[in-house]
Amino acid sequence: MSPARRASASVTPANAPVTGEELPLGALGGMLARTIADRTYHYLAEAGVEYVRPAGVFVLSSLSAGPASVTELAERCDVTKQAISRILVGLEDQNLVRSVPDPRDGRMKVVQLTTKGRRIFDATLLASLRVEDEWRAVIGDTRMNEVRDAMLAYIVAQGNWEPGETPRLRPTW
Questions:
Q1: Are 66 and 160 in contact (CB under 8 A)?
Q2: Who has the most CB within 10 Å: 63, 86, 115, 161?
Q3: Burial level of 76, CB count in 10 A (0-12/13-18/19+)?
């Protein structure tokens, strides 16, 4: 934040109108994530897709690449095994995932998407692409590409991720 923005942010009264210019980037990021989630759910509801909690969508996304043990899934999602286990109970209740014998070691179990889970993941992916198209329509192709490039540059520089690695998608709310 520039010194001028920092100074204006510290003296803005709580009840003053907010234009957006004075908002910290973290607040804008949170607002953006919420807007993207809300618009994605709008398109899913429009398509008649069953509601899945946002944390569940992150887990479905992590399983879209293939089955995983609870430990592997916790690593992919960057959360504890207990947190993943709680989310999996809800997804199993909705018949979106199931545990099956691990083909690498029949004594172990892996979690995989059901047909319904794959269908909901695919619908969620299409909905998120529609949201990206909305955003692109608002700011144009060039700016959209610049936004994506800037986001990726910051994630690579500060976010413990390198292109080519499987992204760690931490379930939220």
A1: no
A2: 63
A3: buried
Domain that holds residue 134: 24-158
Give the count of beta carbons closer than 10 Å to the beta carbon of residue 4.
Answer: 8
Closest by CA to 165, choosing from 150, 125, 155, is 155
Report residue 142: phi and psi, to 5°.
-60, -50
Q: Would 37 be classed as within a structural domain?
A: yes
pLDDT at 3: 57
CA 28, CA 30: separation in Å to the nearest integer? 5
- Strand partners for 68: 111
Query: pTM here?
Result: 0.81
Q: What is the pLDDT of residues 90-137, one digit of tens each?
A: 999 999 999 999 888 878 899 999 999 999 999 999 999 999 999 999
Q: Which two tokens stand for residue 88?
A: 């999996």
pLDDT the model gives residue 10: 55
Q: What is the distance between the alpha carbons of residues 72 and 99, in angstroms, rounded to a whole number?
A: 13
Cα 36 to Cα 54: distance, rounded to the nearest angstrom:
11
SS3 content of the chain, % helix, strand, coil (to 5): 60, 10, 30
d(CA 2, CA 4): 5
